[in-house]
Amino acid sequence: MDLLQLFYEDHDDALQRLSELREDIKNGNRDGVLDFLKFLSHALDEHFRQEEEALFPPMIEVMGEGGPVKVMIQEHEDLRKNHKEVSAALAEGKAVSEVLDVLHSIDQVLSAHIQKENQILFPMAKQMFSSEQLQAISKKGMDMRE
Ligand SMILES: [Fe+2]
Ligand SMILES: [Fe+2]
Question: Residue-wise over 24-46: b if at least 16 C-beta within 10 A, else e?
Answer without folding.
Answer: bbeeebeebbbebbebbeebeee
